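Sample pair:
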Amino acid sequence: MPMHMAELASDAWEQEITFGLIENKQSLLREIDDALGRTQDGAYGICEATKRRITKTRLRAIPWARYRIEYAKKRELGLV
């Protein structure tokens, strides 16, 4: 029995949302895994760009942070 076009569109939209959520979770897991690797290398808490310490406040909020907040903001704005 053929499905209604609206049902097909709704199913496609739900599938796209689900794939996006899965991709986001996989990306977060990679970031966490990388942060764990940095703890073993002794590089955890050091900004990858500036080589300065990342603040404890930032690491409490985002334990997998790679950059100091100042540098991260510049990255988001496309300034670096």
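The radius of gyration is 19 Å.
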